[in-house]
Amino acid sequence: MRKADSEVTEPIGVRRVTVPASVDMVNVLGPRDEFLRILERDLAADVHVRGNEVTFTGTPTDVTVGFEVLTELITIVRTGQGLTGDAVERVVGMTALSAETLRPAEVLTQNILSSRGRTIRPKTLNQKRYVDAIDEHTVVFGIGPAGTGKTYLAMAKAVQALQAKEVNRIILTRPAVEAGERLGFLPGTLYEKIDPYLRPLYDALHDMIDPESIPRLMTAGTIEVAPLAYMRGRSLNDAFIILDEAQNTSPEQMKMFLTRLGFGSKMVVTGDVTQVDLPGSTSSGLRVVQEILDRTQDVEFCRLTAQDVVRHRLVSDIVEAYGRWDADQEEQSGRGSGPRSGSGGSGRRRR
User: Cβ contacts of residue 147 below 8 Å, gap of 6+?
Assistant: First the structure.
């Protein structure tokens, strides 16, 4: 993304980065210059490579961003962590946020958990804030759209805490809310009916723990996966507790869950307030709790956005498109309908 000469209002600047001889240029520029093409596409400065020297030409602001991006890429490579096209794009995006104090290399090289030949790390600034909040607070809410790593990172922190003997068990729970299907029509026993709702939690566990050891850990009670209704009446001590899909809890269920917190325990609550499957007349406990506990000490609300989506890059575009559509619908609804007589200005939500 290069600016035409007529658009440049600042004097032209030049900055050069010399890649150390100990760093392979292929690792920095990518196979077949894949990463170089990303820099040329996403940076507003012209990029030229000669030997192990990279030159950025453009306005002083643009060349500074280019210089910082390449410096961060070199730092990441020197840690032994390989770069990907996705990581390069994220470094460019994070570096452009000049007000941030965190360096992209600090975000992308923070190891949470290593298992079965792969390492789980935050990939965005908000994800790092979320992971740090879990370390620093007893109750953390991770709120954001699909694909932002809310549940996955919480699971990784839970497994890390268990391995470090900071807790004695992991408890994973979800509300078994019908999303267009009815439990009564599903075949099998109660556990078999509930299993589809808990399957995403099992999938994440298999990424982080040896699958052969999971049945043993579950039999011993070290790992428990259960619907939210099974939490009632319990006091959960020395546990890392994760409530997933919390937007589908009622305010009463949310209160019930939060008051299960015992000594030596940590809670993470995740959800997406734009995907509520509750009946139209039922308020989401995740929406209400933000107003109730917003100023409560040792409770932290972390909000992730479409920019934090770490699935296929099209998912981020889909999330943003739906957000714009929802905003347009609300605006049109506000213009086209005023308070109805006898309704108190409220009506049933459109499905």
Answer: 309, 310, 311, 315, 316, 319
The per-residue pLDDT string of the chain (351 residues; one tens digit each, 9 = 90 and over) reads: 444 444 444 567 899 999 999 999 999 999 999 999 998 888 888 999 999 999 999 888 888 888 999 999 999 998 888 888 888 888 888 887 655 567 888 888 888 888 766 788 898 889 999 999 999 999 999 999 988 999 999 999 999 999 999 999 999 998 876 444 444 554 555 455 556 667 778 888 888 988 889 889 999 999 998 889 889 999 999 999 999 999 999 999 999 999 999 999 999 999 999 888 888 778 999 999 999 999 999 999 999 988 888 766 677 678 778 878 888 887 887 766 554 444 443 333 333
Query: Pick from 294, 196, 205: which is nearest to 245 by CA?
Result: 196
AA identity, residue 73 = L
> How many residues are listed for the chain in this entry?
351
How far apart CA 305 and CA 181 sit, in angstroms, is 28
Report, in angstroms and rounded to the nearest whole number, the Rg of the chain calculated over CA atoms. 24
Q: From 281, 280, 270, 215, select the one nearest 247 (Cα to Cα).
A: 270
Which residues have CB under 8 Å from 316's CB, separation 6+? Answer: 147, 306, 307, 309
